Queue: 4 jobs
Job 1
Amino acid sequence: MTAPLHEPGATETALADIAADLPAKAIEGRSPGRIAWLRLRRDKVALAGGTVVVLLILVAVFAPQIVGLLGHPPDQLHEDQIDPNLGTPIHAFGGISRHFLFGVEPVNGRDLFSRVVYGARVSLLVAFLAAVVAVLLGTLFGIVAGYFGGWVDALVSRVMDLLLAFPQLLFIIALVSVVPDSLWGFTGSGVRMAVLIVVIGFFGWPYVGRIVRGQTLALREREYVEAARSLGAGRGYILFRELLPNLIAPITVYTTLMIPTNILTEAALSFLGAGVKPPTPSWGQMLSAAVTVFQADPMFMIIPGLAIFVTVLAFNLFGDGVRDALDPKGSR
Amino acid sequence: MTDESEVFLSVRDLKVHFPTDDGLVKAVDGLSFELARGRTLGIVGESGSGKSVTSLAVMGLHGVGQYGRGRARISGEIHLDGQELTGADPDSVRRLRGREMAMIFQDPLSSLHPYYTVGTQISEAYRVHHPVTKAAARTRAVELLGRVGIPQPDRRFDDYPHQFSGGMRQRVMIAMALVNNPDLLIADEPTTALDVTVQAQILDLIRDLQQEFGSAVIVITHDLGVVAELADDILVMYAGRCVERGPAERVFYTPQHPYTWGLLGSMPRFDRERSERLTPVRGAPPSLINVPSGCAFHPRCPHADLTGGASRSTVPELREVAERHFAACHLPVADRNRIWEASR
């Protein structure tokens, strides 16, 4: 290939011939996303977790249709299902029957199936949106702190330390009690959900921020970042086109593992009465109500407890699978 | 080194210092050189002699972590096509990067972004400086890939860096650096990470493209063989300073500095007997925090005694020994010629 470039030498032509003879498959390019998908597809446990996650999302999205088919409206009372003397369901196992798949609530006889289905809406919506808030804030501040360093980094890092040391549960409980009934154009349960999303997301971003900052510190010294700078790339390009693609793997992994944590936080807050307001069903709130009748009707506690357990487990298994799939060094 | 009128890049008394916890690292300490369009300058020296720091300073790339404490202190003047760079606004220097000056890095794998296809990377480099459509940028990128000798450039455009061999990746890097027709190309150890057989191809390619594009080239290397192949002029660096510079033939055939002798003596050559041992330069490169007094090379110099203590006490100045040939050494010129002739 020492011949002048404008007239291809013999070597070059020969190389081109060889390349042309190769079957196209041999040089097929796989994008990093495709490689991760192929790895994920081989991981049975993660696939099972992922399937449950997808089902739960479908359940939450199509809650009215599912309840219309298999249950009763969540706020409809069914006093005929309740033993008037004891206040417990008349059928065994919390009133489970052909018409009431998960049984009924003690005392007022509301359909537990439809309340669990609608509860999934609250849990997943709060958990997802809070994770989105946390990831957006964490990525932005983390990448800026890591890339610019110096006092920018010091400032962001101290704010993150401060937030991580903050007693967030107590803060949320205190905050919820002073939030007005209508805020930012939301009313009723909408206000509580918006507040939960903002607050859980706001206290969650430092976890993402720390990971992103650490990765950025390592990545900004990479030669390809320097090469991009040597070609005249600006700050925005470096941050979002050069650095961000390398951060997507850790961010994705952390997001899938943060969602179950958020579900638990939401359930805990609802349990403590700081979650969504009563007519709107939520799993934590049901658990809280079940505490008083636990001995008479244990199923009332087991059903929402199982819902939380299955959801969190599915997200965690799926998250672990995603992490393994995105880690090129993993060998499982 | 050339007439003032042709000078394209001029570096005057460049100093790059890094404040660290252990003290001030003087990575480059008073370096001057000039370069004309169409000429090639080879900068040679051991690891840590300040070669790469010099090139990054010219490119204005010492800015990552701009607000950090470890920030480089750069002084002196760098004129590129008449424009002063050291004191210039970082954003205007950024606009020059890629269009006026570009750089090829040592390791072609780590210099290409693993997430994007090579074609995307080349066309993005073009689109930073030219407001053209994606299709037009693609045409330009394919054209460049072909120019640097990648077979089937239209098909390889959509391949990822890991699908290329080391030599092919370096060709891609060269295509990326040349996509905007820069007037100055800095190649920082362009062949160090490559196989010997591929090295010659890449050097030929750089030379051919230089003739075609007429750009000024700086080749940074520790390998005298590389500059022998490419450079018109050679600058030998030691401990952040220039110890010798001049036309390549003169530096190779009548070197004036004991350090240059050491470099030439430690280079394997085919015209020598196999039984002759290579003569390495004694000792290790000096710390850039506590640079030895006087001539920085004196602790390692086998001829320091001949200067009557001057090399220990005073920093030698660069003096012109022949036309355009400078050396910074206290040894009398007669002694230098005698020692060099005797060692051949």
Job 2
Amino acid sequence: MIPKLEVKDLNYSYHSMEGETQALSNISFAVNPGEFLAIVGPSGCGKSTLLSLICGLLAPESGTILLDGTMIPQGDTRIGYMLQKDHLFEWRTIFSNACLGLEIQKKLNDESKSRVKQLMAAYGLEAFQDARPSELSGGMRQRAALIRTLALEPDLLLLDEPFSALDYQTRLAVCDDISTIIRKQNKTAVLITHDLSEAVSVADRIIILTKRPGRIKDTMTIKFPDNAMSPLMRRNCPEFSSYFNEVWSILRD
Amino acid sequence: MRENETLAQQEYVAKQVRRRNMVTAARILLLVVILVLWEVSARTGLINDFIFSSPSRMMICFLSMVTDRSIFYHMGITILETLVSFALVIITGITGAVLLWSSKSLSEVLDPYLVMLNSLPKSALAPILIVWLGANMKTIIVAAISVAVFGSILTLHNGFMSMDPDQVKLIYSLGGKRKDVLVKVLLPGSIPLIVSNMKVNVGLCLVGVIIGEFLAARAGLGYLIIYGSQVFKLDLVLMSIVILCILSAVMYQGIAVVEKRTRR
């Protein structure tokens, strides 16, 4: 089986007049179709750099990144990227914010519009189509941002700490929401987070990175009795805390 | 008054309304006091009304110019010159700032020149402009543009550069190009900045127009001021200055209305 995403011997350094900072060193991993991978590590370990590399915003110094076994051109719409903040534009309505990607790709037509409307209805934003982003709660905004990403029908979703800007309660709820949506749509996803409990509650597999320069320290497969369990249900399982402790101890030493 | 409003709320609202009314009343009173003092001291000979004029003399001057319609001609010329130069400043300001934004090297090369041109006193340019372009409206408009345009480019460019890099990242991650960043984020997101920059520019354009009219005009309020001072008709000079005050306030308020609309 060809993995959905394959990263081989990836290296990346930042350059400035003061010198060179190695951000990532020798990163190799693969993600299978439909898998939910979480990457955790201390802050400044190059997690976000890794996502920028995967979606082609940065070019790797060496190493290859393959999607479905082929190289990824810049601006490939098979990859959807969710950023830390929702970045919904205040001068657009929620609906036209959700259509931004389609607009840029020149794929905005009646069919795609009705698809966006369906997504909005499915995720409880139907009544807010014509609202401005400031009228929505943090959780609703993040859902609108997810619809903006899903509207382009990507196969692979990259999530760059998409819940970290929310307060704790909303964060649990939105994380539950969004990971359920992603699982239901059967998308492959890579989540970056520094929140270990979040990683354990959503992922099928966790990659743990070292401090800068980021190297892969360990990989851990997460198995819960029922695969369809939502993150909140997982948090109530006895396995949850043992996985959490395991990740924590790997990260610490 | 709304229902179930508490007494404290009512008191608060009443206090705020009272304060607002007092400010308005004080503003009007201040104007009246100045006008009365001016008029009285001119009539009683405390000040020489040949040099200092007086509200009534200005009014007589104004009315006589209204009857022969000449005041509308001069005001029209000044307004036209200001609006034309203002429009050109907005267009070149935005275009210039977008060009600088689109090329980092270009902006680095041009930066010291722009800073220098911005701080140069533009009235120094006026005599050369007359030689180059002639004593006509072209000179006046170019002079007005030169006063406002460099600052406008620098302000807008600074604003463009302080855009959230994550918003750029978002556009790229949706497969957009630099053009999409410009059209989808930069310009719509900069409308408040552009409007507040317009507020500054309309005043600066008026400054430039008056400088230009001082030197190279046969019509306009700036011309009236220079002409009036040369023939010692100070009623005319002071009246023109008062009209200029009103004109600049009206134009500023016009942009403030636009600003309110865009904030919606």
Job 3
Amino acid sequence: MPVAALVLGRTCLAGFFAAVVGGVAIAHAQHHWPINDDHISGETTDTVAAPFPVQEVPTAGEQMPPALIQAQASGANTAPDTPQEVDESALRYFARQGDTKRLEIEIARLRALYPQWTPPADPLAVPVNVDERLEAMWQLYSEGRLAAAREAIAERRSDEANWQPPQDLLDRLALAEARERLVNASEIDQYETVIRVGSENPQLLTCGEVDVLWRVAEAFAQTDRQTRARDAYRYILDSCDTPQERLATIQNASQQLTPPLLDELLALERTADGGAGEFEPVRNDLARDAVARGGDDATATVPAEQLARVEQLARAGDAASDARLLGWYYLVRENHAEAETWFRMAREREDSAEASQGLALALMARSRHEEAEAITYRWRNESDEIRAVYLAAAANLLGAEPRPTLAQDVLGRIVAEVAAARDVPGARQLGWYARAWEQHQTAGQWFSTALRWDADDEPSAYGLALTRHLLGDTAGLAEIKRIWAGRSDRIQTVGTGATEPAPRAPTIAPLPRATQQRSETVAPSAPASAQPAPASAPQTTVQPTGSATSRRTCATHADPRHLSAEAALQRGWCLMDANRPMEAVDAFAVALGGRSEKTRRDAAWGQSLAYLRVELVDEAAVAATAQPQDARRANELQRSILAQRAAGAFEHGRYVETLLALDERARIAPERLDLMVLRGYAYLNLRRVDDAQRVFQALAATGSREGVKGLAELRDALTPSR
Amino acid sequence: MIRQILQVLLLLGALPAMANAQEANTTIQESEWVAYKARFVAENGRVIDDANGRISHSEGQGYGLLLALLANDRADFARIWTFTNTRLLLRDDGLAVWKWDPDAEPHVSDPNNASDGDLLIAYALARAGTQWNDTRFTDAARQIATALADEAIFEQNDRLMLRPGVVGFGADDRPDGPVVNLSYWVFEAFPVLAELVPAVDWPALGRGGLDLAREAGFGARKLPSDWISIADEAQPAQGFPAEFSYNAVRIPLYLMRAGLDDTALLRRYREGIAGANGGLALVDVRSGEVKEELMDAGYRIIPALADCVLDGTPLPAELQRFAPTAYYPSTLHLLGLSYARGEQQQCL
């Protein structure tokens, strides 16, 4: 009698059984995926999938013990006809567990083996002569304690020489162990083991074990057997009914298979009564992936259907992510208006660094820098990328024509960010911006700052040259021309032709040539913006000229003692520009021995600047006194020296000295905000609470965050510790 | 290819006398095994290296299997095998991953093997298959032994050698490669595996190891370093301490257990490992300086056994009593006691 008929032909079962067994579909085409049927997978170039072979054996739907398969394979029932020998322990065990699936399989198995056997009317009834040790083994097996189950079996075999464990239990244990091996091997990418264990245990490859099937499929896909992987997924979609597992199968497949093979699987989609396909979520994700790839790569082609799907998703849903994907997609394709629309939608739903960055880029592409600056400011610290976008927006905003009139708070924050990031284009544009508002000293400071951050930035040098010319700083202009000789034609022509703006406000005191300030918080002040723009603002979008056309004269390591004082002085400045201050110190030292008083004075000045740059403050102070300087230089030097001395003392915890230096500096120059912060903390550390409070309050009144922070720390310091 | 070489080698030299070292059925007492497994074997069959972050490794599983066999405890053998089979025997090539870490996820982070672990597992399985007439163990032993021959046994200067791991020790992997570890030669395993997989010339592998043991006597104490470069003349491998250390302490034990009849070699080891206080010396093989003297009974039983085998000195009574300390010396202790009971009863 064929097994199929046996299984189908179940008759009188107790009510408890009937409900269980009767409800199970047994019409699956096959009970496990035939992993070893290589010929049907079509590992060839033939893209038409061979039909999956249908086997004759019906199944109860879950894994089937090998004993049954052997019975089936024999083609005829060779089992003994002695029902009283039937081991019902597993059956009773599963019944007690309420494990209806396994119970049903066990009944089918026993019926296949013992056609004369009738299942017990009530499997829950306590049988006579129950084998407790065997029950315990089943218990261990069902708890997944496979090692302990093996131990119990072996123990009994040692105790009872003639005892044989039920083959069913051994088979199930072997299968469970195989499953564990397969999963563990899969976890560490041992794909051949996965496939080998799967091949040796095809009973594992069932709808009851889709996870195992996924792992086998992955193993095939990862070892260049895509069509075998597809077969495994297709088996699930052909045979298994659990909706979540079907969906997860397609999701897994989408990670492993090429699009054509995936399309074959998508075609197996089932449609619910309502008309929605079961794979809609996966189709949506695939469309999102495609659009995301399109956002990374402007040359990537995104099928119109997928693009439209994501647009539909974005409009219909309320999440920001789809809109962001679309924003990037259009941005890299330079469709800035579309990009703007989607990024705005994304930001309305959920403001984020990413959407703000995208929107800013779309806006900047259409010269709307002001908004770009405004929307990226909040996110500037989220990533290097968005900081760069913010700084670019700020620089572009400053350089816009006609010059915008920026609110003081906007300008203030740009200054702070440019200084914090040491952003050369930003500093340069602040220079041009200041120049446009005829704040030439400030402009000069910003150009100098830009050059300090990047000595090769020709546009900044050009701006500085124009500024010095305008301010009548002939020596300073000459110095720039010397430094840039052979590297920038237009710098050489500053002050020589009609192309330059006429010098303005000649009565303004010349700007200090260098402000050797190093701290991040030390930056030239923001240009005020309440003045009308001059008509002849210089062109701001200056491209750097080729800077490699000539090398500076100080590129080689020459011993300055062999130079004339004049040449040594030149070399000193050159080394300063090359940011080699310690060598500059030596060069200036040679120049200090020069005959010309001007040379000596310049040398002393240069040497003190060089010391300052390497923070050798005391040496700088000494060098500054080596030659009498004019009042402006002396003042500038003194201010720098004292500021650095204050900072140095603070760093070493010498707060009284900090205050002494600051007081001394305050006598010759107004105190900068950053130095006020220093003063506040020096007071705080000396527990001069009232003084600290006064300073931080004054700072806070200017809108300084440091001031507010200082006040908070002051409060904390005054709160008695718990 | 390698098979042909092996057959040629088989025709050449005569095998050294390798006595069958298989102990009588129960050479580890039940109480000893109970104490050992209570300390070092988890319910799921995991053998725990408690001095090493409570990790498990293929070597430990191999020792666990072997000790369960020597204690004739089929049940514990079965559970240790279940863990070994399902958690470590995962590699595509059929060998075991060497390390299982309870605190890592996944528990296996390095898929490389350790050939001594594979060898111990295969050996214990092969004996278990015979002892308990269980083909499940015999089949698994055959698979692992075959994989070892394919992946880890190689020829160098006309000798068969054992790669410590499939990856990382070959001539292409390191400037001083090949590098081997003499303590990975579990000599007693070779006759057993030769019966199981006769196509592989296990005796030649044994001879190769024995020849290396004779050669690799460095410095004043004439001891091998744990790791040996055999690119040229044997010498301490680069990148490892040039020390006779925790790996190599097993070598004289393995030589004795295998019944290798080379008294001169054993005496050289016995003299080399002599500590000032009766312990087992770990030695800087270049300077001859003693780095540490191990006093755990599990280590001291090794020189004590050598004294017995060489000179008939009985084992001190305290070493005949087993009390678990740490996984590694406790394992060596039981292997030593088992050997004395099975093969050297005059030592007791």
Job 4
Amino acid sequence: MDRQNNVLEYLDHIVTVYPDKNAYIDEKEAYTFSRVYEEAGRLGTRLLKDGFYKEPIVVFMRKQSCTIAAFFGIVSAGCYYVPLDEELPEYRVELIFQTLNPRAVVCDASAAAVLEKINYQGKIYQYDEAVLTERDPVLLQNIRKKAIDTDAIYIVFTSGSTGIPKGVVACHRSVIDYIETLSDVLMVDENTVFGNQAPLYVDACLKELYPTIKFGATTYLIPKELFMLPLKLVEFLNEKKINTICWVVPALTFISGLGALEKEVPRYLRTVAFGSEVFPAKQFMIWQSKMPETRFINLYGPTEATGMSCFYEIKEEWKPDGVIPIGRPFPNTEIMLLTEDNRLAGDGEQGEICIRGTALTLGYYKAFEKTNEAFVQNPLNPNYPELIYRTGDIGTYNQEGELMFLSRKDYQIKHMGHRIELGEIEMVLNRMPGILQAVSLFDQEKKKIIVFYAGEVSKADAVLYCREKLPRYMVPNRIEQIEQMPLTLNGKIDRLALRELYKNKKGV
Amino acid sequence: MNELLEILQDLHPEIDYDTHTQLVTGKVFDSFDIVTIIAEVNDTFDVTIPAEEIVEKNFDSAKALYALITRLMDED
């Protein structure tokens, strides 16, 4: 596979090596590599014959093996996939459709009703029917010959502070770059058995989906309800002999915090990678002491730089006051820590974490202004165009030269492994009839999203409204009604006063 | 029981806990809810729910959960 320029080359190759091995396994079905390959080609043929090319195709399906085959099918047609999920509320799906205006959607039975409700007028493919099409290898090959590695491959939507989700567009080149370097760090090979936790509508699932077709590994899509039952979750890992997991931190602390590791240890796990937020030291120490032979790797990176950008393998015995570093960038990626006056931060100085390299995605879909705010000219290079991505994360280097995360420049938070703009929650509530103003805070310690609002609406109604309009991980964990928003002297909302109010209400 | 219902109402005011019997199997709860419930039950009733008791049948209804709490309090 020299000079690879398309992710499907992984699949083309692996299907000749392990045609009958299981690639993706869900609760009901196991997909072999040849089945993934075949159905992807069939769906691709169908899309091409119907005139779809170089455009977004939405995949609106439950998390299951065939959803992944649908992704590759869309890529085979030279299009890019936009994964959505039945979990997303109708309102959000509608917002995303307004941005995308997709001409085609691939769905399963569960999604059809939602499409009808939002009055979607484009083409709807039922996956099962679409893959009855006969594969046309010549047609697919011709499309592939024309493909270049900066073609878009997917769009994933993340929370937007103005209330409209942002669609991050990635290309083949950045995904290939990521998968090659990540696989080295995780030491993936054909014996790797992944246990996938991340939803398929976020870029976190790249970690399992693509190394699986690169090496002929196997990925189990772990049933979601197991993430409510800690001991059963560990038993599942053991039963399936899962040896590699890349999970968000809350999924790991869920197991250790509820005492499941005292009862049973995941015996086959040799690599545990985690990300999305800081791993509390006390919880991490439980994992480390129960599994001394396992590699633990902290991953860090924004969706805008395709998956993860930095890693830190924890080799030392952890201490209760230790903070796990972000570490160092993957090969072929550079981290620039820029001060407010655009210098590289010196020893002990703080700066914004900025990313340079092939890893950068193409930007936000149909949002040039937003793109230009975050993807900017490298201020250290005045000589030719060169983009860097400004993450909005503030960091510093520790004495060992490892990058450490400190805080955010804005109101973005990480909650339950998801990246959330508090502003988006506020925008949604501000639109609710009867609400004068809503302000959202995050209780970092208790990991709770708090909302204060003024207006003639009952608390229960406000919660119900949020549940209807927001993905469940964005629904406030606590809502408080107040008479009037406290203001600062220059008339802005006084967030510090609200925080005090919350502290007092909490009785701390 | 009222104290427990208060905890649960706070999480999902839209649910009728008197009649709902599939809180876990019907995916009303998510992992965040389970963690919150266990922490609040610990604060309110001073009982720790051990990992092996975090199973569908103990969390599928408010009644079952209350029965579990009572049992654990008695065992103390």
